[in-house]
């Protein structure tokens, strides 16, 4: 989920949980894998000097490697150039609606609890859940820390993903991210595909087990997604179609217009609006 617009609430939470580096990157960025190993060693030193436990740094980064699949995905996001109808067809919009209605009914108590707490109805949450991972059935196969480290090293968005890498280290340190975890190509985590920084900002321990488990706990993932939307201005009871107050919160989820519209359409069908 590479979609974050900072809010005052999110920034305050971030400052309280993570020490960001004085410099944006640990060493010279690169556009191929040749300098990656040296970059990682430089980043390890920087992270340790910026308040991350050396044992956490070593544990988290011991298995990272330059991820070419991540680079290919970052350079080739072609589906967002489709028309809305093409995008809906490619992403299986009708199938998500059909199954999403069943998921809403099956987990009615959970969605009612989330709406009571965050003001977000089931529809857009189920739409996001279905579109991102097929309701948790496929959360990605790339090594998460390698994906994030690769993009932090890559010159295209090094500053942005260096922050994501620091956030991932924080998650490892508190036991909310396994160093061997696998997910989507850009390092998105779990059933609704949060980038690490968004887990720090908006992650919720919905099931009360003491951890934010975006992978194995649908309750954590869905509550966190509702909290993300609330953090991006969601107004309880207001509409979420284009032109309505809560569409702006959906825009915070993903920068692509077709994705935003698809969430609104699928969500409304699931909510029965």
Automatic annotation (TrEMBL):
The keyword Signal applies. Gene3D superfamilies: 1.10.530.10, Bacterial muramidase. It comes from the Bacteria. Keywords: Signal. It holds the Pfam family SLT_2. InterPro entries: Lysozyme-like_dom_sf, MltB-like, SLT_2. Residues 36-240 form the Transglycosylase SLT domain. Residues 1-26 form the signal peptide. PANTHER family: LYTIC MUREIN TRANSGLYCOSYLASE, MEMBRANE-BOUND LYTIC MUREIN TRANSGLYCOSYLASE B. This is Lytic murein transglycosylase. The lineage of its organism: Bacteria, Pseudomonadati, Pseudomonadota, Alphaproteobacteria, Hyphomicrobiales.
